[in-house]
Design a protein that fits this description.
InterPro entries: Folylpolyglutamate_synth, Folylpolyglutamate_synth_CS, Mur-like_cat_sf, Mur_ligase_C, Mur_ligase_C_dom_sf, Mur_ligase_cen. Belongs to the folylpolyglutamate synthase family. By secondary structure, this protein is an alpha/beta fold. The chain has 2 domains: 266 residues, UDP-N-acetylmuramoyl-L-alanine:D-glutamate ligase, CATH 3.40.1190; 123 residues, Mur ligase, C-terminal domain (Protein-Tyrosine Phosphatase, Chain A, Alpha-Beta Complex). Helix content is 40%, strand content 18%. The chain is globular and about 60 Å long.
Length: 406
């Protein structure tokens, strides 16, 4: 039942606006008012920040709900309580109960899952919910909740067809999750930070910029200094220091102590984001825009400076493949271009103009196997460009059934 319902809702597409989700939550007696809410938006790093904050709050004794997107293997990954994904039968039950209202109210796929998460959190006695923004902020479904704290990781160009063509447009959309008189945190820099600060002033929000210092890579993780303390987490990439610093500062704002901060950081994981599988010498990263591609290229230089590298790449049609290629192509000796299942995927033959001498293999599993077979001793294979690509690769390798095209 739940699978069929979600497929029907997915076919509706996406229409910006909060009217549907607000009406739905009102009809459900406002489950979002049963707990504290933290909203996490931004162009990149939302998921890492949200997961780290959730783990810290859990370590401090809170019962924490976490809502994220997209998922990699199973839609249940989007709805967690204290790091445990919602049970299959619980999600089925929720969607069966909500189905009449979802259908009648014209809810989208994302709105349905957001509503289900909020109901689940209320029924599970969650004390704080960390909600990741799906797209933008101002009209995103999670913005129907009233946050005690908002986080905007950064501001860069992405989803320009929805959010607008300039950084100022993007900043305005992301600033929509801020609330007058409420605290807000960001790690944004440069022009994006300036536009965001102006948008925050216009909304009357108390925006604080958080900046870690003395960032170092260590093992397959990252260490950084913040406010007199030195912290570490098992997430790869210097860019993660900014995300983790936001989580630390947010947790302190919400009352977490130092022991909880350190325990939570030690426990954080984020599959599909610079996820290294040493047995296969395979690195999975969902870098899906130029900023993410640049972060991946820096991570390769930091963690894998030696040895040849082969890229398996796919992207969505609405992404800046040229910008991603400019960041990634110099780091690789060979490139396989492919696609993930779904109408949003870019034609790999069309991507070839951005990657000189690349090979094209439309089947992502075949592309990956050929890259692994061609990898010389000491070499590394990297799959990147879209979380949907990683989902397709990981599902088959884990023995999961294929999902409907997204």
């Amino acid at each position: 039942m739940s699978r069929e319902l979600l497929e029907r809702l997915a076919r509706r597409g996406m229409t910006p606006g909060l009217e549907r989700i607000r009406d739905l939550l009102a009809r459900l007696d406002h489950p979002e008012r049963a707990f504290r809410v933290v909203l996490v938006g931004g162009t990149n790093g939302k998921g890492s920040t949200a997961r780290a904050l959730a783990r810290i709050l859990q370590a401090s004794g809170e019962r924490v709900g976490l809502f994220t997107s997209p998922h990699l293997l199973d839609v249940r990954e989007r709805i967690e309580v204290n790091a445990a994904a919602i049970a299959p039968e619980a999600l089925d039950d929720l969607l069966v109960r909500l189905a009449p209202r979802l259908e009648a109210g014209g809810a989208s796929y994302f709105e349905a899952l957001a509503a289900a998460a909020l109901v689940h959190f209320a029924e599970q006695g969650v004390t704080t919910a960390v909600l990741e923004v799906g797209l933008g902020g101002r009209f995103d479904a999670v913005n129907a909740a009233d946050p005690v704290l908002s986080i905007i990781t950064n501001v860069a160009l992405d989803h320009t067809d929805w959010l607008g063509p300039t950084l100022a447009h993007v900043a305005r959309e992301k600033a929509g999750i801020l609330r007058p008189g409420r605290p807000a945190l960001t790690a944004a820099t440069g022009a994006g930070a300036d536009f965001l600060a102006a948008a925050a002033r216009a909304r009357g929000a108390r925006l604080e910029r958080v900046a870690p210092s003395h960032v170092e890579v260590h093992g397959y993780g990252v260490a950084f200094a913040l406010g007199g303390g030195v912290y570490a987490a098992p997430l790869m990439g210097r860019h993660q220091a900014a995300n983790l610093a936001l989580a630390v500062r947010a947790a302190r704002e919400l009352g977490a102590d130092e022991a909880a901060v350190r325990a939570g950081l030690a426990a954080v994981r984020h599959p599909g984001r610079l996820e290294y599988r040493p047995a296969e010498r395979l690195l999975l990263d969902g870098a899906h825009n130029p900023a993410g591609a640049r972060a991946l290229a820096r991570a390769l230089a930091d963690y894998f400076p030696a040895g040849p590298k082969i890229l398996v790449f796919a992207a969505s049609r609405d992404k800046d493949a040229s910008g991603m290629a400019a960041a990634l192509a110099p780091a690789f000796e060979a490139v396989w271009l492919t696609r993930y299942p779904g109408a949003r995927a870019a034609d790999p033959a069309a991507l070839a103009r951005f990657f000189p001498a690349a090979r094209v293999e439309p089947d992502p599993q075949v592309a990956l196997e050929r890259a692994l077979e061609a990898r010389p001793p000491g070499g590394l294979v990297v799959a990147a460009g879209s979380l949907y690509l990683l989902g397709a690769l990981m599902r088959e390798r884990a023995g999961f059934p294929a999902e409907p095209p997204r």
